[in-house]
Amino acid sequence: MNSIANKIIETRKIKGLSQEELAEQSKISLRTLQRIENNENNPRGKTLSLICNTLELNLEEMLATNQNQSPNIATKFINFFFFTVANLLLVALLGFMTIDSQANFNSRFAMVLLSILIPLFIINFTPNMSSNERLLKFGFGYLLYFIATLSIAGFVTGFLSGLFLCILINLSMLYFGSQLINKK
């Protein structure tokens, strides 16, 4: 449900008005108000202005919050591209430092540390993101890399190199990290 409909319903209930009373006071049809509240259509300028005047709401605020709620296609594409590149970079770093033929104890230990610090960095810059959303956006590459390594190199190679341990640490930190940070 969009934010305009939510705000109208919330304010109407706070003021103790029924849909019929609001429609009558706003001089709009009851069916129009029902369509707006049920999110069947977006209110046009005059209709929204009448409702806002009746409920004593700021029209400009309502329009601004609704515009901020709906990202356009370009924003979605940029987000998709960014998360894809971020996942590829994180997975490449993980693979290079653990499963590469020249990887030694120091590089594997560094990757275990980075498996803790990188998700904490991500959590710090995405405080409003839920754990599930964070896991889907930043952890999807790890899941795909786990499946690819399991099918190509095998379980023994992934386990002995420390790759699977690092993936497990990364995914669990992405999911549970915000709870660890917020514990006081």
UniProtKB/TrEMBL annotation:
Membrane spanning residue stretches: 77-99, 105-123, 135-156, 162-181
Gene Ontology CC terms, in alphabetical order: cytosol
Domain HTH cro/C1-type: 8-62
A Pfam family that the UniProt record links to this protein: HTH_3
Alphabetically ordered keywords of this record: DNA-binding, Membrane, Transmembrane, Transmembrane helix
InterPro entries with a match to the protein in the record: Cro/C1-type_HTH, Lambda_DNA-bd_dom_sf, TransReg_Diox_bact_type
PROSITE patterns in the cross-refs: HTH_CROC1
Example GO molecular function: DNA binding
Record's keyword annotation contains Transmembrane helix: yes
UniProt name for this protein: Helix-turn-helix
Organism of provenance: Cellulophaga baltica
